[in-house]
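Appendix C: a fully annotated inverse folding record. The material below is reproduced so that readers can follow the format used throughout the book. The structure is listed first as tokens, followed by the designed sequence.
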């Protein structure tokens, strides 16, 4: 993954804060090496900023026989480092310091660990060998320069190479000393120069020993070296030809170092380059194995990858089946009809309805309680369908997200699936499905049925009285009639027929009301089931996508 574009550089503090946040966001998602490297840069920056920013640590690095130590002595104006020809003579890094107020003498003297303000810096760099340099008028210009002579990076001694790697990673300014015979050596280009492509602002390349070449050959070597550096991503790095033996080019190198040191910003440029390199490593780790097409845009603006709605609907349908919502909806309709018949049925047979169990109470679906139901557990097919729906949500959400972040998105979608069954049962048990409220017409129909039952009772009682009088052969009072039918018979038969007709009408109305309440219950349950899906599946997925988007933004800012 590459960081595209280049905006106006942000303040160093903001870039380091962005890098630290990116490392925290990538914890557990990316490889530990890239994350730890980013954190190490942030930690190192904190330490370096607490040390003297008035001093610039400049390291001379090169291969065996490149003439580093000779150049070190030439820059110091006095022999400090031991010079060798074919074998490494620098076993430990040593420092030369230019400090104000010492122009009255020449030469160099060894100093202790607390070399003025540079002491803590050198302690942090781990350079015990220190020499104070006085050089007349040049001292004022180079005040704050801390020049380091490093061991050879290709030394046969492992400790020497490790010392070079350590110091190359922390000094403020790097001066690579190459010689005409080995300036194209792959060891220096592949191991150091190319990985430090983002550090071109804190790097100078010196081709030493040009006095051994004819002027035309020296010019060709310098041009060839510039071409090699351009291939390494170091096109704008200053390339100087010098001769430590004759002094040719040393003045130009001194001027370049004086210019860099006088700005007192090399340390900040180095930290900014470190932050950009660490951000690039995080970006590369993000798209490892995804091809070069996946890139993090500079300045943030990570694409928000929404969970598409069809996948969400499929998830809700699968959760509804697993939560036995169809069974609940059917029970709502049955419970409505059951309660309607019990409230509006013919009083003569109504009591029989009360002997039947209420469908909702049997399932423990009262809309309140301990949050548990008696619904049947989800079948293996329903559980499998639910798992497939959850996986589809994760797969859809991860589309367009590079690995290994895509794996984290898919894992986030499944991270709380073990809670689904219990959450679904609890939300179904505690959700009111709207069957507790009694319709007003039930009371009116119930009152009418009791009125009709009373009418029947009056008719039956009247007929009973007439039967007793006939049985006792007592005179019967006159009985009013409706046409030819006596009123007692009309009351008895009419009440019975009317009661049955009202009961039949109420059953039809109850059936229609049951369907209406079932549809309402389905909508309510679908809403709460969707909430469960959002909380346990969609929300973790979107949180991971948001985390990825924030990571992309922070990496882009750190690398800008």
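Designed amino acids, in order:
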């Amino acid at each position: 993954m590459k960081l595209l574009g280049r905006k106006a550089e942000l303040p160093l503090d903001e870039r380091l804060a962005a890098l630290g946040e990116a490392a925290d966001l990538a914890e557990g998602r990316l490889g530990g090496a890239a994350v730890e490297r980013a954190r190490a840069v942030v930690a190192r920056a904190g330490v370096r900023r607490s040390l003297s920013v008035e001093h610039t640590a400049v390291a001379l690095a090169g291969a065996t026989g490149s003439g580093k130590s000779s150049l070190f002595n030439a820059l110091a104006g006095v022999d400090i480092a031991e010079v060798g020809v074919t074998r490494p003579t620098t076993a430990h890094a040593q420092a030369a310091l230019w400090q104000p107020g010492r122009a009255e003498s020449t030469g160099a003297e060894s100093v202790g660990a607390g070399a003025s303000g540079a002491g803590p810096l050198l302690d942090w760099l781990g350079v015990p060998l220190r020499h104070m340099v006085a050089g007349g008028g040049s001292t004022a210009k180079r005040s704050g320069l801390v020049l380091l002579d490093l061991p050879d990076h290709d030394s046969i001694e492992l400790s020497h190479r490790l010392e070079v790697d350590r110091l190359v990673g922390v000094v403020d300014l790097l001066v690579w000393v190459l010689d005409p015979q080995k300036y194209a050596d792959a060891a220096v280009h592949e191991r150091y120069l190319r990985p430090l492509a983002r550090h071109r602002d804190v790097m100078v390349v010196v081709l030493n020993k040009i006095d051994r070449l004819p002027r035309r050959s020296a010019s060709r070597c310098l041009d060839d070296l510039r071409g090699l550096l351009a291939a390494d991503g170091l096109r704008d790095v200053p390339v100087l030809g010098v001769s430590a033996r004759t002094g040719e080019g040393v003045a130009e190198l001194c001027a370049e170092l004086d210019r860099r040191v006088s700005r007192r910003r090399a340390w900040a440029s180095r930290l900014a380059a470190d932050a950009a390199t660490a951000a690039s490593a995080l970006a590369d780790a993000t798209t490892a194995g995804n091809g070069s097409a996946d890139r993090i845009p500079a300045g943030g603006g990570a694409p928000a990858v929404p969970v598409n709605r069809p996948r969400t609907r499929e998830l809700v349908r699968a959760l509804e089946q697993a939560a036995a919502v169809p069974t609940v909806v059917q029970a709502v309709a049955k419970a409505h009809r059951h309660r309607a018949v019990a409230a509006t049925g013919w009083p003569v047979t109504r009591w029989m309805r009360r002997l039947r169990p209420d469908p909702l109470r049997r399932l423990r679906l009262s809309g309140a309680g301990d949050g548990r139901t008696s619904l049947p557990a989800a079948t293996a097919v329903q559980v499998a369908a639910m798992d497939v729906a959850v996986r589809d949500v994760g797969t859809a959400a991860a589309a367009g997200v590079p690995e290994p972040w895509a794996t984290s998105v898919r894992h986030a979608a499944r991270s709380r699936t073990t809670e689904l069954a219990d959450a679904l049962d609890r939300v179904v048990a505690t959700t009111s499905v709207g069957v507790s409220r009694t319709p007003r017409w039930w009371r009116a129909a119930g009152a009418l049925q009791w009125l009709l039952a009373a009418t029947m009772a009056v008719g039956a009682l009247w007929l009973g009285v007439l039967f007793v009088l006939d049985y006792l052969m007592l005179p019967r009072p006159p009985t009013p009639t409706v046409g030819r039918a006596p009123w007692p018979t009309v009351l008895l038969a009419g009440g019975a027929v009317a009661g049955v007709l009202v009961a039949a009408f109420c059953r039809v109305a109850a059936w229609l009301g049951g369907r209406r309440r079932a549809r309402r219950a389905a909508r309510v349950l679908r809403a709460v089931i969707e909430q469960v899906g959002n909380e346990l599946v969609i929300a973790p997925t979107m949180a991971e996508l948001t985390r990825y988007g924030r990571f992309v933004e922070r990496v882009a800012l750190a690398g800008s």
